[in-house]
Amino acid sequence: MNKTTSAASLLISAVLVGLQTPLQPIQSALGFSIFGYTCVDYLIPKVGAVFIKRGIFGKDMSKVGRPIIPETIGVIPALVYLLVMFFYIPFLFARKGNNGGGGEADASAFSHSKLSSYLSSLLSLESMILLGLMDDLFDIRWRHKFFLPAIASIPLLIVYHFEFNQTSILLPKFISNAFQLSTSVDLGVLYYFYMAAVSIFCPNSINILAGINGLEVGQTLVIAVLLVINDLYYIVGYFLEDHLIQSAFEVHMFSLCFLIPFLGISLALYKYNKFPAKVFVGDTWCYFSGMVFAVIGISGHFAKTLMLFFLPQILNFVYSSPQLFGIVPCPRHRLPKFNESDGLLYNSYTEYEDSEESAESSDGKKKQLRPYLKPVFNLLEKMYLIKLVRNEKGEIVKSSNLTLINLVIIWFGPRNEGKLCTLIMQLQFAVGLLMLILRHTLAPTVFGFDNSWSMLNRFYIS
Ligand code: UD1
Ligand code: MG
């Protein structure tokens, strides 16, 4: 961005932030989003060289000569986001107008009970930035860092306990009818474990759907856009119809207040991380962005709907689980294999020793394919869910790494890195949109209740 464009963006953001209108929270969010974008866009090119000087860099594995570029740059948008969200507080929680004491002042945009939700969300995000940074700098062990997001979410869960304490889930109508049950079951404390699990899952699942330029940020952009559409659906409905529950309107407004500035800083990061990447985002970004979604889902009481937008990450996790849990050997990097001669990305593989070799190996690290997995792999191969390489004896010597990225390469063929990332984002968006539509059409039919506005609801629920 040149100086004139930056100055113009800052001016527009100042007007949007400050202007008093009935839609002020959203309009301020847009202003802060533009402000966040401008700051991140300004800072990233400035700090890159400093990061490299401090030894914080990574090798871009899918380029000729594996050049080094700054790593952990996600900390810049993450910190800008925190600052922006601090600046935003008076616009959301200060009383509008003051009639000189004594009399009633106008109410703030959100009730003050929401302030505890807001602050505990920021506390959780701060903890995650710290964890991500520690991980990028000191490479923390998987088993040590795995549960930390759940601890980071404790303040948020306590606020949830006081604000909502809603721990019931709806049962599908056909089940409650068939077994003469009530329409909902109270999960009690289990619901809190579920929300803690969401805060573990979101950051980690983003981190393992990674390895090609742009994907770590790209996937968070797609999830954020889907969540914005979901929020708008409720908010537009509120203005068009009058029977929407007021609390649903408030939580979705609140969610937008987190998402819109987040989109601004993510877009600026994407500009530098997309193919050909000028910076790597680091685990800091994956943990931070994952936690942004977790806090939005938890504080907005839609942690279940949130998971619909994480379907690709859930599938990637399930598909990866044999490697994550050590049933199949897991190399340090599972990113696709770059072919220098045509510039395309091909499947990457995990290799097995054949039986004679491993009998001789003395390091105790057996990398043989477990016998019971052979028929499973053969079946998966027939279903185009894995690629296998066999030796002349017909034994499996290599299997493609179990990642969604590799699966997309199996289905769509080798691609250029930029096109592969775009394709995965498009698939993610299409799946997310389908989930969104099902959430607002099928869910009301199956559960017999939906807290959203929908023309279809009235059509279905009679
Ligand atoms: C996770 C994945 C790992 C994948 C890595 C890539 C699991 C269990 N772990 O590990 O398989 O290889 O992310 O981020 O699934 N890199 C690129 N191009 C990119 C992004 C990253 O070459 O577009 C390389 C760079 O060398 C970079 C490194 O990956 O320095 C970052 O890896 P890191 O985030 O530390 O890996 P993990 O999160 O541990
Ligand atoms: Mg990572």
Q: Can you tell me about this structure?
A:
- The chain has 462 residues and is mainly α.
- It has one domain.
- Helix content is 63%, strand content 6%.
- The protein has helices at residues 3-18, 24-53, 75-93, 113-138, 142-145, 148-152, 154-163, 173-178, 189-208, 215-240, 246-273, 282-299, 303-308, 311-324, 355-360, 373-382, 404-412, 417-447, 455-460, and strands at residues 57-59, 68-70, 168-170, 184-186, 337-339, 344-346, 349-351, 388-390, 396-400.
- It has a three-stranded antiparallel sheet with strand order 7-9-8, covered by helices on one side. The chain has a two-stranded antiparallel sheet with strand order 1-2. The chain has a two-stranded antiparallel sheet with strand order 3-4.
- Helix 4 (113-138) runs antiparallel to helix 12 (282-299).
- Bound molecules: uridine-diphosphate-N-acetylglucosamine and magnesium ion.
- Uridine-diphosphate-N-acetylglucosamine binds next to strand 1 and helix 9.
- The site of uridine-diphosphate-N-acetylglucosamine (UD1) has 19 residues, from strand 1 and helix 9.
